[in-house]
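seq:
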Amino acid sequence: MKKVVTRTIEGSEETSPVTASQQAAAIQYGYARVSTDGQSVEAQVRQLTDAGCTKVFREVASGALGDRAQLRRLLTQLEAGNVVLVTRLDRLARSTRDLLNTLATITDRGAGFRSLGDNPASEICRTLSAEIF
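struct:
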């Protein structure tokens, strides 16, 4: 049975066994978003593909829009064991509430989340502090 890293804390790794069905279901999906037509998602797509994403959902839409079709498609396709990757948190959400709601949807579906360019703990704390103070 294969083991995978489930979390890394300051250089130490915690592993857990993964069944064959979980391993088959462990698809990494990427989400790349730019705000305007004049911008390109290609750099994000390249980073996500290099990180192992098998499919990247591309979107040209303001993060402030509540209805982002490609994000909705991604979230409805998620299955337990899948992982959603973004290059930065601000590609996924523009507000703390939106981020928390999206992360709740991901975890409710049994999937994981990873941001390539952010330290999750410090970025979320900074975002929450900005909202509170």
